[in-house]
């Protein structure tokens, strides 16, 4: 996330949400700043880290981190939901259907409503969900990793298509983390 966007969100939250205001406790000590609370929430959401993981980096305990995330998500939905969390338009749906068709999944708008796919590996039929991954994931049957040195046109096509889609996903998460 770029700094001006982040600071715009921080400013709006500090002005409009009581939880995010920088306040003093009864002894006169300042509590967590708006910046700390927003950073804690975003780190938990973007990196998928545990709530107690922000303790070391930001000095925010797990309970406070949970409150930061809950308050942050509620505020983002309230303030920006109508503009950014809208239902897709018919044009959006057509574009998504076209992209799905190009990738070999006709009729699929998103992963939630994707068609059931049954496949076989070495003659063994599978009907469970599977996920296209890269080499950092464990070698579980549900994780289909790319072929690092493809042998033959079929394997090369699979590796090329998987890498293209994986890069799309990485770019999307890169935008969130920037």
TrEMBL record:
InterPro entries: Harbinger_derived_prot. Pfam families: Plant_tran. This is Uncharacterized protein. It comes from Brassica oleracea var. oleracea.
